[in-house]
Write a structure and sequence with these properties.
alpha/beta; FAD/NAD(P)-binding domain; D-Amino Acid Oxidase, Chain A, domain 2; 2 domains; seven-stranded mixed sheet; 25% strand; globular; binds flavin-adenine dinucleotide
Amino acid sequence: MTASEDFDLVIVGASFAGLTAARAAALRGLKVLVLEAKKDPGARIHTTGILVKEAAEERDVPDSLVRPVSMVRLYSPALRHVDLATRGYYFLTTDMPGLMRWLAAEAERAGAKIRCAAKVTRAHRMQERIELPEHGVTARFLLGADGARSTVAEIFGLGRNRRLLIGMEQEFAQVEGLDERFLHCFLDSRLAPGYIGWVAPAPKVIQVGLATDDRHRPDMAAFRRHLSRLFAFDEEHIVERRSGVIPCGGIVRPFADGNVMLVGDAAGMVSPLTAGGIQMAFRFGRRAGQLIADHLKRGGGLPQEVLARELPALMHKRAMRWLLERRPPNRIYDFLIGSWPMRRLAAGTFFHDRALPPSPLPRNAGKEREQ
Ligand SMILES: Cc1cc2nc3c(=O)[nH]c(=O)nc-3n(C[C@H](O)[C@H](O)[C@H](O)COP(=O)(O)OP(=O)(O)OC[C@H]3O[C@@H](n4cnc5c(N)ncnc54)[C@H](O)[C@@H]3O)c2cc1C
């Protein structure tokens, strides 16, 4: 029998949370290994990957991998729209495979090892350590950053994500008629019950996506038919299709037990309202890496006890999710679109910081781009 290699920290999952945690822990001097099921962290991406401004402030990313979009065009089911912007606010659409590979390279540069094509299916406690026999390694601490359907949570009896949204997306090389200055978002209780549809101009492609609650399956063909009054989609221009689930039930309990902890989607760290999880994956991935290092090297308290005090309550967002799940009739959206309460609500949801004054839209905003 070959001897196991010992690590301070083994992280399952090389994505936003796992790679950010790996970098932070390795910089603090831990011997870190990341185990990733895919053959390359940039392969088979399951997310749109839009960074809200707060996520871009959490983690600096290369400008060459992102595209800033500062305005949102919000549509009602009848495709009436309102344009929204807030001074200084922006989203970054991303070259996701490129960004994921860059995050991996940064973690490695800090000293972490990343092993790909290394799916974890088994792990157990062995005295003070965790053993992962199929990979021949042991760890003083195990961090599950393995997404919404976490194997680490399952193996160690931790809390599981019970409420999920289902997201589906198609990437197009081009879409005729699209005003690329906007992130286009679509309210529709029939096509997107519990969430929204979107068309986002990314650095290299146009992303067309739809998410629903888990009692419905997103119908991309119906969504594209619905949008055909606005844009022309050509099937031949599809370059990628993807789907995935998004936790929307809040933080799982318990998210840790002794020297095993969850972070990112695995821990349910996703805004229940916007379904954005990258910002929290960056923030709490970094904090998890720091706190585990402080615990193992510097006599700090249990990471989960410190992290629990830092987690957001998300009460307002959970209330809004409750409302969305009631599936407001489409005629209500059509009636309210453009109204002051709807604009306030939408601005609060998209731009978070309601204290900022509204930005004057560029003079030609609201008109389609001249072809
Ligand atoms: C369609 C869709 C669109 C989205 N759009 C956005 C958006 O625009 N903006 C935003 O903020 N959020 C978005 N989200 C949510 C966002 O993608 C997640 O919150 C984010 O990816 C969470 O990062 P993570 O590192 O926690 O987990 P994940 O990104 O899910 O990564 C988990 C990693 O673990 C690996 N893994 C899983 N199981 C194992 C195993 N047993 N062994 C080894 N490796 C394993 C996986 O291969 C994966 O690499 C979207 C989600 C979906 C589904």
